Amino acid sequence: MMVPSERALHEAIQVSPLDLPDDVKRQKIENLLAQMRLSAATARKIQDVFRSEMNKGIHQQPSSLQMENTYIPELPDGTEEGLFLALDLGGTNFRVLLLELVNGVVVREDVKKYHIDAHLRTGSGMPLFEYLAECVSNFVISEGLQDVELPLGFTFSFPMIQHSLETGILVTWTKSFNCPDVVNKDAVQLLKDAIARRGDTRVNVLAVLNDTTGTLLQGATQDPNTAIGLILGTGSNACYLERADKVEHWEPERHGEREVIIDIEWGAFGDNGVLDFIKTDFDRENDANSLLVNSFTFEKYISGKYLGEFVRVILAKLSKDGLLFTRQVPESLLLVGSFLTDYISLIEQDTVNGSSVHTKEVLAKFNIIPDEEDLKIVQYVCELASNRAALLVSICVATLLDHMEREEVTIAVDGSLYKHHPRFENWMNQYITLLTPARKFKLIHAQDGSGKGAAIVAAIALRIKKRLE
């Protein structure tokens, strides 16, 4: 027999059945999509698996979670003062930022964007880092600060292994980058060397981080209870504050650190097969259609890069089976990558509003003129996919909260999916509460962790450096 709290969880995570007058058609669709519905028991099983993978990762045992030590041992405390630079590299465009902090508060922020041409993103890494250094120099000189010592935080949003706060060994390039001679090299050292060769500024690269860590740091300037950073955008990842004595991987000398930020790298959760029990036929096709098959398993369930394609796969299947768009199977819907995650957010807004304006607009892009049943089915599929994604994220966040055992935790979140989806935040608040009722938590939107967060970590690194001198 299900205990009351589990019954409440079970009932909350069940999306209302599809409302169609044709019972036979409705039942066929429900049967086909039943594999996407998760029970309370399955949610608890995912929690157990995530907890197990976290423990293995933190103890340096084989795990689908990297549990990388960032070597950031403290959060901003309001004493940060001075000028700090940030270099935010993660796509075809990158940014250089100058932040002035007074009592930990940003009082000045100058930002400049730069484009990286295709020839710099591939081939040898030397020209790429020369260009990054040139842009940093030009920015600093344009600010009239070439003679001022400027600490820099480097946001390097690619998979890396850290040996210290200022070491980032590139594991693999992603997105549109492929400079093979940088793999297994320290990206921070390459940047330092390129800046030193120019010799026209006094920029010191003090720390490296990714956008998830930056989000936690940026959140901490808004709320001192921030202890989890979460990205829900094109990709997804999380980090959290761990007790330092639990962390086995620690290469430099320890200096009495009490806690440290751990980068979970949860996009790969399940790459080793531990989540296969929730994998549907639609997930398998979504994976087969992706560039990196059999990797980023968890990300493919929840992130903006893959949710749209997941929904397209389902709509195409329903259409081929004669259960949707019965007038014609739209050819455009059979094109891989044609259905964007942004469309899901728009359609979900219709479900919230009880309308179909956005749904019709989206389907018009595929030259589809839907009937009333089509509209209901498309909205239902988007709701099921979105709801499952929000539940999976919530399961892992709730597990983190239980693991941390803190009085109160603020979760700093950033990313386009979280910002634009009309129901994600509400679902997360509801599900996390039901999954771990004893924990007090709050979700806040912390924007631009990859920029401001990098400058903040430079300030923290400078403070630590001075303390140890």
Automatic annotation (TrEMBL):
Residues 228-460 form the Hexokinase C-terminal domain. Keywords: ATP-binding, Glycolysis, Kinase, Nucleotide-binding, Transferase. The keyword Nucleotide-binding applies. PROSITE patterns: HEXOKINASE_2. One of its GO terms (biological process) is glycolytic process. Pathway: Carbohydrate metabolism; hexose metabolism; Carbohydrate degradation; glycolysis; D-glyceraldehyde 3-phosphate and glycerone phosphate from D-glucose: step 1/4. Belongs to the hexokinase family. GO terms for molecular function: ATP binding; D-glucose binding; fructokinase activity; glucokinase activity. GO terms for cellular component: cytosol; mitochondrion. It catalyses: D-fructose + ATP = D-fructose 6-phosphate + ADP + H(+); a D-hexose + ATP = a D-hexose 6-phosphate + ADP + H(+); D-glucose + ATP = D-glucose 6-phosphate + ADP + H(+). Its EC number is 2.7.1.-. It comes from Cotesia congregata. It comes from the Eukaryota. The lineage of its organism: Eukaryota, Metazoa, Ecdysozoa, Arthropoda, Hexapoda. Residues 29-220 form the Hexokinase N-terminal domain. This is Phosphotransferase.
